Automatic annotation (TrEMBL):
<dbReference type="InterPro" id="IPR029063">
    <property type="entry name" value="SAM-dependent_MTases_sf"/>
</dbReference>
<dbReference type="GO" id="GO:0032259">
    <property type="term" value="P:methylation"/>
</dbReference>
<protein>
    <recommendedName>
        <fullName>site-specific DNA-methyltransferase (adenine-specific)</fullName>
        <ecNumber>2.1.1.72</ecNumber>
    </recommendedName>
</protein>
<dbReference type="InterPro" id="IPR050953">
    <property type="entry name" value="N4_N6_ade-DNA_methylase"/>
</dbReference>
<dbReference type="GO" id="GO:0009007">
    <property type="term" value="F:site-specific DNA-methyltransferase (adenine-specific) activity"/>
</dbReference>
<keyword id="KW-0489">Methyltransferase</keyword>
<keyword id="KW-0808">Transferase</keyword>
Amino acid sequence: MTVLEAVPQARPNRSQRAVLSATAAEGVSEGALAVLAAVPGWWRNRCVVAGIPLDEVWSLEEALTAPAPFPSEAYDQISPRDDLNDVSSEELADAYVTALDGKVRTSDGRHYTPAPLAQALYEQAVAVLKRPPDGLVWDPACGAGMLLLPPLRDWLRRHADRAPDEVIEKIQSAVGGRDLDVAAVWLGNVLLAAELLPMWAKIDATSRTALPALLSVGDGLQAPPASPQLAVLNPPYGRVRLDERDRERWSHVLFGHANRYGLFMGAMAEYLAPDGVMSALVPAGWLGGSYFQRLRSFLASSVPLKRLTYVGGRSGVFSTGVLQETVLATFKSGASHGAVVCGRVTLNGKTVSTPIGRGRLRRPVDGPWLLPRTEEDVGLISAVQGMKHRLSDYGWSVSTGPLVWNRHKSQLSDHPAGNAVKIIWAADLDGGVLHQDPSRDGLRYLTLRDRDERVLVLDRPAVLVQRTTAPEQPRRLLATALDSRSLSLWGGRVSVENHVNVLTEDPQLALAPAKLSPRLLTALLSSEAADRLYRCLTGSVAVSAYELSALPLPPPEKIRLLDEVADELLQKEIACVYGLVP
């Protein structure tokens, strides 16, 4: 986690207070304290399982160099979670994070990685590295160390024949992490130390020394103690408010709003050792969003993307309720630009990995990255690689509907009054056909005031596209033409609310290489090809003007031919142009 201030700040950042006063349990829920209170009992059980006699079991205070996060009196009124005595390390960590107050978890962006995804992330990193790591494996936002368990276990397996005391000494330079959550860091140190117990048990009781703390409290955006050969991270998600100094520091990866996970990706790309690998579990939004264009450019130039795995499903993957689509993205420092191996991993009781195929990043690298999401998309993307034209080339621009209804509540009504215009709502575009949805008729008219005519009124033909869609929706692009006839039926002038994208023709259309009519543009956006391509270049269910503007469109000669095709044959011809029909 980072010291940067979260937005919105629902409450003061508890983690920052804990760094300043590590003896205070303020802000930690009773449920989380009950989990922490159960850790000593869990530790004793793990020692016994490792083969250490009960009379030789050291208390946590003796066995671990990491100090306890809170004084013993913090637990005076707390009953330990006895049901956790025999659970796995992953289950204990998950019990802690799910017991945190929801506001704290949301504000700080704490979402621990499920064990199957932690394993998949590490295996993907090793595949790109092309060998098991022999240098530092680092997690800059480690929480309770879940991402470090797979590399630690792998390292211990590979060094099982070495002297136990040597293994314990060397592990400190092989695995490490940092986080601001004092309690999580302590818990993580316990969990990682428990992996060392079988080795520790082999050392004579009179010669044992305290086990090392592999995690530390601090800001993960700062440089690690050594350049990592492999960085694994599931950084905190969410926007942050930066001061001028921080904005200047991260200006090479920022465009508009800053998101914490983007900062962590940019930081680790800087700190990697030569030929090092970064493997991140992050939301998919950075692949296409406007705010991430500088991040994409920086990553492409310094640590090219080598593997991308989409995490199937949004619900039930994270116990803390992350609903964003997430990906496992693996980058390699100093690598040449080339193919990106794409795949999908699904957690349905067991981990199922499905290969998709290879994609390739094309210039400009700061634009949305068009990469296949299904095996069928590989051929489609290959077919459009030569399509250089976009909406702007044909004289079209995209803007967001200007009416934010709750800013004009007093001007809305169910009947026309004075200088009023009809409102087009997103619901009026359902099914790709412009209609007057009855559910919006109670707020159907906007009475214009002052400068509203200039700002809020659309009085020329346009193409309208819904901005907000649902994950389960069969189509991401829902477009309809507001042609001259439709506009006349709606009164000749309308106001479009802000959940609708408005595509309009530039008056200087003579500069365009071909005439792209509203009819043909609507048909293109309504095609199967356009919908699949849009899904391939965005990780969001929102349909943004930025990503619409990046859609590959047919060349001028194809546009001229398609414009002459009858309506009933148009979709088939569009499919042919995009290579979906032989």
